[in-house]
Amino acid sequence: MSPVPFDWIGRSLGVLSGLGCGVGSDFFTYGEDDNFCVIKDFGQPTTTINSSVLRYNLKHHSHIWQTYIDRKKDFDHMHGDQNVITDLMFTHKQRVYFPDEWVYSFKWPERGKPEKFEKYKPEKYYIRKERKICVFHGHPNPDFIVENHPDSWVKDYWK
Fold it and tell me: Model's pTM, two decimal places?
């Protein structure tokens, strides 16, 4: 049996809860082939990996999946996938962060300064065209924004 659930080898990009605002190839070409590229968490950037955007290569990173399978009972109590990724890769020599300037949070304007989403202030949540991906983590999600703020920039990207 393969140590991973599929046989894809090569650089793969996972964008799990974001909108591309001009992604381009930078995420594929950044770093070395054996780098496990991730973003810093928005709420806890010094202690947690955010799994919304990550690049991996199964040729070099199948150990993540294998360790998860081997230790699944240890990880079952964790809140979610980014907690598992943080546990396995935060101090790993292959972990490399994408530049903070590439990715931003829709609801938290500054990394490391979480705040409550203010749904009645849509002007506070503007598109940052100099960034490549806008991450929607937790509430609100893009559907909520499109439904409740039809004039928001989100509707132009959320298809």
Answer: 0.83
